[in-house]
UniProtKB/TrEMBL annotation:
Family recorded in the similarity comment: Belongs to the DegT/DnrJ/EryC1 family.
UniProt xrefs under SUPFAM superfamilies: PLP-dependent transferases
Residues modified to N6-(pyridoxal phosphate)lysine: K186
GO biological process: polysaccharide biosynthetic process
A Pfam family recorded for this sequence: DegT_DnrJ_EryC1
Gene designation: fdtB_3
Entry protein name: dTDP-3-amino-3,6-dideoxy-alpha-D-galactopyranose transaminase
PANTHER family noted in UniProt: 3-OXO-GLUCOSE-6-PHOSPHATE:GLUTAMATE AMINOTRANSFERASE (PTHR30244:SF36), TRANSAMINASE (PTHR30244)
Enzyme Commission number: 2.6.1.90
UniProt keyword list: Aminotransferase, Pyridoxal phosphate, Transferase
Keyword Transferase: yes
Keyword Transferase tagged: yes
InterPro entries assigned: DegT/StrS_aminotransferase, PyrdxlP-dep_Trfase, PyrdxlP-dep_Trfase_major, PyrdxlP-dep_Trfase_small
C-alpha cells in the first residue's frame, strides 16, 4: 500500500458533487468578483474564527503584506518574525518595504520564543509576527505582553492554523489581525490561491478592503495607490463548502496525530512533536526530528510512504535574503531544525489502514519492528 503525503482530490474527500454545484452556481450567476459568495464566506469565516471581521484576499502572502501596509508599516521599519518558518512570512515583510528580524524558536514547540523577543526590539520595530507553525498556536499571551511593553502591533501568521485554539479560543479571536492562506494544501484550501485577514478592528478591515481593490471603495474613485489582491467568487464558493467540513477534517488529523504520538513513542533517534498545555493544535503538519533524516526518508520512500521536509533551508540562509547578511551559524536552533525535521503524511485522506502503514514503516525503518 502506498501512502501519499496528501490527497486533495474532491473524490477522496467525498466532496465531488458539492464542489461541482458550488462552481456551477457561480459560473451561472455571471458575477465573478466581489459578489455575494465572497460576502457570505467572509461572514462565515469571521464567525468560525470567533472574530468580528474577515476580508478575503488573493493569498496568504497578500493577507500578511496588506495587513502590514494597512497598519502603516513599510520602509524604515522592522518586523520581528520567526527564524523558523515558511519563507513567505519574511517575504511579506520585505514586500511591504520593511526588514524582517528573526527570532529563534523555543525548542519545545517549533514556534517563536517569546523570551527572546525583547532582545530583538529596536527603535525601528513596529510589529511582531508570530506564526502558528505546523498548526500549533504560538504563545500569544507572552507575545502580546512584549508587544504592549514596546507599543508594537501583533500580526499573526495563521496560514497553517485554521481552527486551532489558544487557551480555548480560536486563533483569530481578539486578534488585531490574523492572516490565513487557502493554498490548496492548507487545512482549509481553495482550488487555487486564496487568503483572508481576520480582525476585531473595523477600520483595519476597511483599509485592507481598500488595498485589495486598487485603493477603491467606490468604482473609479481611488483613495490610495494599490494593486488587486481579491478572492474570487468561485474560490469563495468552494471555501464555503469546505469550511463546513473543516472541524471534521481537523478531528481526523488529531486522531491520526494521537496514533502517531502513542505508537511512535520511545523510539531511538526520533523526537515527536510536543503540544503546549494551552494549545489545541490542528496538525497542519506532523513533524518529527531525527539526526539521520536522509536515511529515514529513504527507507520510508522504499516502503511507499511519502514524506516532505518543512523546511530544508531557513529564510536567513536563502539567497532571497542574502542582502540581510545573516551568516551560517547565526541562528543555530533554526539551522538544526532545518537539518532534522521530517513531515509524516498528514491529512483527512489518512484512513486507519494508511496510518497503520506509516507507523509500521517508521518502526521498521528505525529497527524497532
Ligand atoms: C502558506 C503560508 C504562507 C503563504 O500563503 P500563500 O497563500 O501561499 O501566499 C505564509 N505563511 C505561512 C506560515 C504559510 O505556511
Amino acid at each position: 500500500m502506498k501512502v501519499p503525503f496528501l490527497d486533495l482530490r474532491p473524490d477522496s474527500l467525498g466532496l465531488a458533487s458539492e464542489l461541482d454545484d458550488a462552481v456551477r452556481r457561480v459560473v451561472a450567476s455571471g458575477r465573478y468578483l466581489l459578489g455575494p459568495e465572497l460576502r457570505a464566506f467572509e461572514a462565515e469565516f469571521a464567525a468560525y474564527c470567533e472574530s468580528a471581521h474577515c476580508v478575503g484576499v488573493g493569498s496568504g502572502f497578500d493577507a500578511l503584506e496588506l495587513t502590514l501596509r494597512a497598519l502603516g508599516i513599510g520602509a524604515g521599519h522592522e518586523v520581528i518574525v520567526p527564524a523558523h518558518t515558511f519563507i513567505a512570512t519574511w517575504g511579506a515583510v520585505a514586500a511591504a518595504g520593511a526588514v524582517p528580524v528573526p527570532v529563534e524558536p523555543d525548542g519545545y514547540t517549533a514556534c517563536i520564543d517569546p523570551a527572546r523577543l525583547d532582545a530583538a526590539v529596536t527603535p525601528r520595530t513596529r510589529a511582531i509576527m508570530p506564526v502558528h507553525l505546523y498548526g500549533h498556536p504560538a504563545d500569544l499571551d507572552a507575545v502580546h505582553e512584549v508587544a504592549r511593553r514596546h507599543g508594537l502591533h501583533v500580526v499573526e501568521d495563521a496560514a497553517q492554523a485554521h481552527g486551532a485554539r489558544y487557551r480555548g479560543r480560536r486563533v483569530g479571536h481578539g486578534a488585531t489581525a490574523a492572516a490565513f492562506s487557502f493554498y490548496p494544501g492548507k487545512n482549509l484550501g481553495a482550488l487555487g490561491d486564496g487568503g483572508a485577514v481576520v480582525t476585531s478592528d473595523p477600520e483595519l478591515a476597511a483599509r485592507i478592503s481598500l488595498l485589495r481593490n486598487y485603493g477603491s471603495r467606490e468604482k473609479y474613485r481611488h483613495e490610495t495607490v494599490s494593486r488587486n489582491a481579491r478572492l474570487d467568487e468561485i474560490q469563495a464558493a468552494v471555501l464555503r463548502v469546505k469550511l463546513g467540513h473543516l472541524d471534521e477534517w481537523n478531528a481526523l488529523r488529531a486522531r491520526t496525530a494521537d496514533r502517531y504520538l502513542t505508537e511512535l513513542a520511545g523510539l531511538d533517534d526520533l523526537a515527536l512533536p510536543t503540544t503546549a498545555e494551552w494549545a489545541e493544535p490542528v496538525w497542519h503538519l506532523f513533524v518529527v526530528r531525527t539526526a539521520h533524516r536522509a536515511r529515514l526518508q529513504r527507507r520510508l520512500a522504499e516502503a511507499g510512504v511519502e514524506t516532505l521536509v518543512h523546511y530544508p533551508e531557513p529564510p536567513h540562509l536563502s539567497p532571497a535574503f542574502a542582502d540581510l547578511g545573516w551568516a551560517p551559524g547565526s541562528l543555530p536552533l533554526t539551522e538544526r531544525l532545518a537539518q532534522e525535521v521530517l513531515s509524516l503524511p498528514m491529512g483527512p485522506h489518512l484512513t486507519p489502514e494508511r496510518t497503520d502503514r506509516v507507523i509500521a514503516a517508521v518502526r521498521e525503518s528505525l529497527g524497532a519492528s
